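Q: What would this chain look like folded?
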Amino acid sequence: MAGEDAAHGRLPALPLRVQGVDKTDWLTETHVATAYHQRFQAAADRRERMREVQQDLVAAECDRDRPHLVVTLVPEMPGEMPINQRSFVAHKEALSAARPLLGLSHQPFVQVSVGRRRLRLGWPSPAARRDVAYLHDDGAGVCAHPIDTRVYTMDDDARVRVVDADVLVHRLMSAPAFLGAHAQDRCGTTGTVNIEVDLVDEMYSHPWAPPEPIARPGVPSREPAHPLVVEQRSEQSATFMAVTAQAEITALLDERTRSRGGSPRPAPTS
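A: My prediction, written as structure tokens:
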């Protein structure tokens, strides 16, 4: 058959049994190549969407000089959240009362405003530098949590900022659950989502932050931030020093996640 196809200028066909149907369909190499191209293109589109969502928040909050944990969630299948006057009133009431930090009654979002195809959650005064989140109408979302530190002086008189690892773990458990609830409940997304976590010593250290402006003549330059150290307190104590740290994961959104109020479950990978 391959020789006959080549003689007639046709690409060879590959057998594919359709599940649940008692017959065999035939796909050409062109169909297979197109399917793979679409798969890789979809992955590239999700990476671009991840960049857009992060860049939107980081560019607006780049003057924050405290350590932050930035968590971004992008569904593989986009959802839809209408933003109009009626829906905004309902969203504003629910989000103003939200308790995104698991196990705590703290309500960090006192102001809900409308942006370009998204909702912004935060404080009325930008100088507050509190928790901030952007929830987009396609189910994507990003939140930035300022992380408290304590200054420690080393033996060589150098100073570092120490972060408790338990605080990071708590934020890492809370943020995906909060963003996942938005993707499911307001945008109707299901299936898998891509999650990226960035720990930065300041917003200008984020991979998608804009270039830091050059100080004008006569204006003193901003002092560099003290290095960030993550300290783990356990039977086997350890410390980790870094300017930024990044991690990515693919997780599942399903009914069990919503009913249990937990974080999205990691998806198995091959």
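Residues 29-60 form the longest helix (32 residues).
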